[in-house]
Each structure stands twice: as C-alpha cells, then as structure tokens.
Amino acid sequence: MLEIKFLRQNLSDVQKALKARGQSADLHAFQKCDEDRRMILQEIEALRHQRNVVSDQIAEMKKAGENADILVAEMRDVSIRIKELDKDLTLKQEQLDEILLGLPNLPHSTVPMGKDESENPVIKTVGDPAQFGFDPKAHWELGQMLGILDFERAAKITGSRFPLYFGAGAKLERALINFMLDIHTTSHGYTETLPPFIVNRQSMTHTGQLPKFEEDLFKLSNWDYFLIPTAEVPVTNIHQGEILDEDKLPLCYTAYTPCFRSEAGSYGKDTRGLIRQHQFNKVELVKFTTPETSYDELETLLADAESILQKLQLPYQVVELCTGDLGFSAAKTYDIEVWMPAQGVYREISSCSNFEDFQARRANIRFKRKGKKGTELVHTLNGSGLAVGRTLAALLENFQQSDGAVVIPDALVSYLGGMEKIAP
RNA sequence: GGAAGGGUGGCUGAGUGGUUGAAAGCGGCGGCCUCGAAAGCCGUUGAAGGUGCAUGCCUUCCGCGAGUUCGAAUCUCGCCCCUUCCGCCA
Fold it and tell me: Nearest nt (C1') to A42 (CA)?
C-alpha cells in the first residue's frame, strides 16, 4: 500500500509509475474519495468536539444541582447527526481502502524500463553449462527411469500437477531442504522458523496476495483460510502490528514450507515435470530492515540465495526484473535462473525482492529509533533460497550421465548418507 | 464439543458512567551524583488521523463490531482470540 499523503501530493508521478508497470489506475476516483472523506471527517470532528465540551458542562451543572435538560436535548440531536455522518465516513473509508489496496508498489528508480520479461536485463552469468556427449534427458524422463518421480500415480491420488517422490528422490528432496536451511542458519545468520502453512485473509492482504489475486490461491471451503503460496506470507506476518526495536534490525528468518498455488491461467504451460506444480517445497528467506539499509540487504539476500547454487555447482544467471515484469508488491526484484540443459534454457529458481514499506504499511510493522519520537515503517524483503523441486530438477538434468545415472554434488553427499550417485 | 476465567500503553498491572490517555512498577530518554560506571535521587516518556506557515489546536484509540446514554475502558448484546479444567484426538 502506498502512503496516502504521498499519493495525494504526487498523483501524476504515481500515474507515470503505474504506466511503466503496464497498468492504469483511476486516480481521479481516489482523489474524489479522499476529498469527500476528509470533508466528512472534519464535520464529524467538529461535532464531536462540541459534544465533548457540552457534556462536560452538563456534568458541572448536574453537580451544582442545576437543570441541564436543554443542553441534553441539543446533544441528543448532535449525537444522532454524528451517527449519520459516521455511516457516510465508513462507506468512504471502505471505498478508499479498496482503491489503495488495489494499487501496486512503485518501482525503485534503478529498475530498468521494459514491457515484459523479454526485456529483463541479465546482470550476471555464473558457471559453465556442462557439455554432454549425448542428448541430455529432461528431468521427468530421468526421474521416471530412476524410479524416483511418479507423476502418473500422483495424478491418481490428487490430480495433475502434484509431485510424488520415491526412494532416493524423496531423500534428495529432504536432503536439499536440510542443506539449504543449514547453510542459511549457520553461514548466513538467518533464524530458522517453521510457520503455519494455512493463513487467514488478513495475513494474505498484508503481503499483497489479496484482495487482487484470490484466484491464484487455494482456499479452505468452510473457513476464511488459505493455503500459503509461499512462506513469505506467514513469516512476514510474524511481526504484523508490532513496533520493533531498532537495534534488533535487521531481523532475518528462513523457513521451509510447502507452497500451494492454483496456477490459474497457466493451462498447458510446463505441463511436464517438477517446474510448475500445485504443491512444491521451498526454503524462503525473509528480512525486516531499516529503510536506509534495505537495498544493501537485498544484495546480500541475493548473494545468500546464489551461494546455494554455487555450492551445488549449478550454472545460473541473475536477471533484474524490468518495470513491466515486476510483481504487485515489489519495488525491485532479482530473479535467479538455473540452467536446464534438456530444454536449453535458464529457468527461474529464486526471486529476491525488496518491498520497501509496501507490505509493512499493510501489515503495520514499525520500528522505533533510539532517542527519536514516533515510529517508522520497516522495509521487508524476501527471496527463495531456493525452490526445492526446481533445484532437484536442475540437479537431475545437469549431473546426468550417459547411462541415466545422476551424480550427487559433493556438498550433498553427507546429507544423503554418503550416496554419491543415483543409479538406475 | 462442555465449563470457568481473561484480553488495558514497549512490558507487567490498577481502574465499574463525567478533567482517565488512563494509577503504580519495569523499561526508555534527560539530568544530578561520580575520575568513570553501578546504585540512588529528580524530571520526562503512547500511537494514528485531521487542520494550520507555525508554537499549536482538534478528533480517535483500553480485543473487534453493534447498542444504551448528553457522556462508555467502565453498562448491554454479538463475534474473535488467549488461558485453565473436562471430553475427543495426532
């Protein structure tokens, strides 16, 4: 959510920024609503003031044994009028909230202009894709050959786009989760958390999934609860409504959770393999920072996510999302894309964003500076560190041998009880 | 699911209709003391919003929402959450 005062004073700049995102918004409706609301508010406050003053008078008169019937009758009318105006105010406030909650964040000044993902600049490429003396197989073929992935049976259990792992596959997924959590907690200073996988409507609104993107979520039928699409939601909401101490910042959390996404509108896209599932595992990184450090923290967050790929010896590139590809809540985002040899493309495996105070304002997460009056909103950041299913897919494809076996990178061997390769 | 109790400021915790934004304590900040610190003492210390060039003024906020009243932290009703006990259960 944008600050209402800022919006009021910078309407044309905001309009421009929205256009860069490829969106248009009816900011005139906002302007009108905002003005109406303030008019009503001022009238209400004046009436309340009158009532407060006169009520004190009434108390004095009664104490003195005088008759206050006339004032009481007057104030009865004032109260009725206040009640009427209150209804108007609530209505205006709701309209205003609807507009404000529907406006995306503004791109940071360093975000490159562009219309869609085709215009995301690559800012670095790390590692050399392996040369195969044969046609590399897709991970779903390898998974099937090795007997560690079974999408057909998963479809019987639930439906399409659900994963089912067996044996070394299940163990590898678990090993990756442990490996990532261990690195982030012991080498990068994150605190491990294990949050709820189901959250309420408020939490979803705080991080920006709601109200606009409800169709992307799985909702429980008899509850106003949702399955989380990412650990970002529960972990960012750990501190909703809190005033944090300045010297506790930055707060850095990591969490493993499964993630659930309806993938509405992606029919026919990435239908095979582990790339686009309704349920997948992810290790997430979340930070709460002061405003002046958030962009430095974004760089280290990115480096923390990258280090996992480096330790796994997976080739990748980092792209910067252009204005047209930026997510709703983000001010700036880097995507890490891992090399997938079978398709010959880089695929997103992590997305690292600074939300500045956009989520903090919705979730009311503030901090207090030492010796200073008042509070300020924190900045929130998060990134995948990493998407586990996609990491497993990348491992299978990048480390496959001509006989279909898959070599385990050194960093993971101890997590697999010494297993160095998955053989058919 | 049944029964009881409870949700008050950064924290603990008083407060049952009219200077209560709210006692007290802790914490924070400033000062005195000290070579310096601790202890002690004194003072100070909530947030959000509206308005104004501004010192400021005003409004709201005691879980949430309605209601009673001239006036509600305080009375009534509904809801949410927490704790304890019982039942059921991984």
Answer: B50
| Chain centroid offset of residue A419 CA | 36
Instruction: Domain ranges for chain A, please list them.
Output: 4-102, 117-422
Tens-digit pLDDT profile for residues A135-145:
999 999 999 99
**Topology of domain A117-422, CATH:** BirA Bifunctional Protein; domain 2 (3.30.930)
Q: How far is the CA of A371 from the C1' of B32 (A)?
A: 20
Chain B, protein-covered positions (CB within 7 A): 10, 18, 28-30, 46-51, 58-60, 66-67, 69-71
A41 Cβ within 7 A of any nucleic strand B atom = yes
Per-residue model confidence (pLDDT) at position A243: 86
Please tell me the CATH superfamily of domain A4-102, with its number.
Serine-tRNA synthetase, tRNA binding domain (1.10.287.40)
Measured from the CB, is A93 under 7 Å from any atom of strand B? Answer: no
E strands, A187-299, are 191-193, 198-200, 225-227, 243-245, 251-260, 279-289
pLDDT digits (tens, 9 = 90+) for A167-208: 999 999 999 999 999 999 999 999 999 999 999 888 999 999
Sheet containing A316-320: give its strands across: A122-126, A316-320, A332-340, A345-354, A379-387, A279-289, A251-260, A191-193
Computed over every residue of chain A, the mean pLDDT equals 93
Protein residue nearest nucleotide B47, by CA to C1': A374
Query: Chain-centre distance of CA A356, in angstroms?
Result: 12
- Left, alpha or beta for A344 (phi > 0: left; psi -120 to 50: alpha)? left
